[in-house]
Amino acid sequence: MIQKISQAWTLIILANVIPVVIWVLMIPLASRWSDSFQIFTNLGRLTAIVGYTLMATTIILATRLPLIEKQLLGLNRVLINHHRLGAISFILLLAHPLFLTGRFLSSSTRSAALFLLPNLALWPQFLGTVSLALMMALLIITFYLAWRYQIWKFSHRFLVVAFWSASSIPLLLPAMFRATWLCERIY
Length: 187
Prior knowledge:
By secondary structure, the chain is mostly helical. 78% of the residues lie in helices and 0% in strands.
């Protein structure tokens, strides 16, 4: 029984660590922590990567696949883990824009404040703001309003919309794909 759970958790941890390892290998670590701008940028990226992969994990746990239920010893354990990982994901995704905003604090508090507002000229930032706002609204509804199960379940489906909206952000960031370790090997 314990072996089943540890195998499932090993797979979950591995699936969430692999993107971090790829990110670490993309650019030399020394250049990532050279000044406050780089530190805030990379903490922002790291919280986004881990938060996003944990959100993907919570979506997979929410599918209620019999194999997952069997590995985690029942639906109740799956839902408890879904809730815990979802909370960690949410905290990391909330920290992501705050770290990115920190890049601008040394130069201008106005620039930092403006960074938090949706900006149609910057699509990745706009999609991130919309995704996070949608996620926050849905989770507030989920935690604080007592709805019938069917309505609650229906509202939960919109979290997938926030997830897919956030999925497009890296595709709009050319810096993430320029001369990276992974792309050099693929292309």
